[in-house]
Amino acid sequence: MTTTRIVTGHDEFGHSQVISCGPLPGSEEFTHSRGFSAALVWQTPAVPALVDQPIDPALQMSSVVPAPGGTSALLVTFPPDALAGGADFDPVAATEELCERLPGLGERFEAEHPGFHRTDTIDYGVVLEGEITLELDDGRTSRLKQGDLVVQMGTRHAWRNTGNIPARLLFVLVGAKRPEPLA
């Protein structure tokens, strides 16, 4: 499915206009993770500015994980677990591709526990299509279906698609600071 991203701004007279309109860059399927896709929709710094001619943040992004106060919107498609692996699956190549396409996030995935990761963010997730299972520590799970919402508070988690169709989610990550441990 092709997703169109429209970005608005202002012309020289202050009138609203479409600055860009086209396919969401980076939304194509990953090469080494069959059926998986993840694209940065937009990103803002801790103090975003309203500018007349916004520039695609992906062109200057160093990490999809936002700094405290910043935001990142990601559109992610999770294939059914049964399709994601396969005899020709190369976990090293898949990890390298994940780190390349989602810098700052790919490096947070745990090699010894596939799929598990944790970020210093508050995440708002919306299930747009399909169903997905959120797995937390100790095997705790929650099943989400189309229209369901999840708010994650920097928790260690993994996503599992045990169904037969892809699950498509929109995530908005808000950069946060983790509290200092009590002495």
From TrEMBL:
<dbReference type="InterPro" id="IPR013096">
    <property type="entry name" value="Cupin_2"/>
</dbReference>
<dbReference type="Pfam" id="PF07883">
    <property type="entry name" value="Cupin_2"/>
</dbReference>
<dbReference type="InterPro" id="IPR011051">
    <property type="entry name" value="RmlC_Cupin_sf"/>
</dbReference>
<dbReference type="InterPro" id="IPR014710">
    <property type="entry name" value="RmlC-like_jellyroll"/>
</dbReference>
<protein>
    <submittedName>
        <fullName>Cupin domain-containing protein</fullName>
    </submittedName>
</protein>
<feature type="domain" description="Cupin type-2">
    <location>
        <begin position="115"/>
        <end position="172"/>
    </location>
</feature>
<dbReference type="InterPro" id="IPR047142">
    <property type="entry name" value="OryJ/VirC-like"/>
</dbReference>
